[in-house]
Write a structure and sequence with these properties.
231 residues; Dihydrofolate Reductase, subunit A; 2 domains; alpha/beta; 21% strand; 9-stranded mixed sheet; 9 strands; 5 helices; binds NADP nicotinamide-adenine-dinucleotide phosphate
């Protein structure tokens, strides 16, 4: 296999919801600590999310300042700025994330210090690519207008040596990998709660994609939660 093993790792309600007020409940907050612990225990080479999740967790709505790069020529092809012990991969084809550094700064050592790899397409504004280069942020061009998830995985494998990847939402991004048949394993921290107002589902786009597993494990967590491992 010339791509990483992909483990979908998410916090979910029993009815498959991943966003909503339930995430603020103290019980769920405690179980989120289990989620972060399990993330660290997987000791993956990389984690991957969609632009919306990264905006909420790491860039907090900061806009990229690309004006200075308008019209500037940019070398064609992918940009591998450096190799690192850990990578933070984000699909951001419109170039919306504003960064200040080439690595993540986070209190959790499972996320902190990961070198950022932006996933873009041929249509991503050149000024944004020049902006990424100015910050030594790597990027991979993975399609003409749409992201080709298999090509992305092959590049992560061959250009960065990524062998184990945690796929960590949100529902749009998880769907991309489900539909491409690229989810090898699921790691679900299930909270003991249904929230009728909850929003997004584990897989937001419903067209296609099935998964079946042969090995399942259920580990009780504190506060009535369960860690479900499906392989
Ligand atoms: N419960 C959990 O464990 C968990 C984990 C992670 C996230 N979340 C939550 O999930 C929510 C976000 O989920 P979401 O589904 O709305 O968003 P998301 O998957 O985080 O991000 C979706 C965005 O990523 C980009 N993207 C993803 N796939 C793409 C593709 N094939 N081609 C081009 N661009 C692509 C697009 O960005 P553009 O719009 O810029 O084109 C798209 O709008 C947040 O509230 C977050 O807190 C929950």
């Amino acid at each position: 296999m010339n791509r990483p093993t992909i483990i979908l790792h998410m916090v979910t309600t029993p009815d498959g919801k991943i966003t909503g007020a339930f995430l603020n409940d103290p019980t769920v907050q405690a179980l989120c600590e289990d989620y972060y612990r399990i993330h660290r225990e997987y000791a993956a080479d990389a984690y991957l999310c969609g632009r919306i999740t990264f905006e909420g967790s790491f860039t907090f709505g900061r806009q990229p300042s690309t004006q200075a790069f308008a019209g500037q020529p940019v070398d064609s092809g992918d940009y591998v700025a450096c190799h690192a012990d850990k990578y933070a991969v984000v699909i951001d084809t419109h170039g919306r994330l504003g960064w200040t550094d080439h690595c993540i700064h986070d209190d959790d050592p499972g996320y902190d210090a990961a070198h950022i790899i932006e996933v873009v397409t041929e249509q991503t504004p050149k000024a944004y690519l020049a902006y990424l280069r100015s910050l030594s942020i790597s990027y991979l061009i993975c399609g003409e207008t749409q992201v080709d998830p298999l090509l992305l995985c092959e590049k992560l494998f061959s250009l960065f040596g990524i062998r184990k990847l945690m796929l960590e939402g949100g529902g749009i991004t998880d769907s991309l990998f489900l539909q491409a048949g690229l989810v090898d394993e699921m790691s679900l921290v299930m909270v003991p709660m249904i929230d009728g107002t909850a929003g997004l589902s584990l897989f937001e786009q419903k067209q296609g994609g099935t998964l079946s597993f042969t090995h399942t494990k259920a580990v009780p967590l504190s506060h009535g939660g369960i860690w479900l491992s499906l392989r």
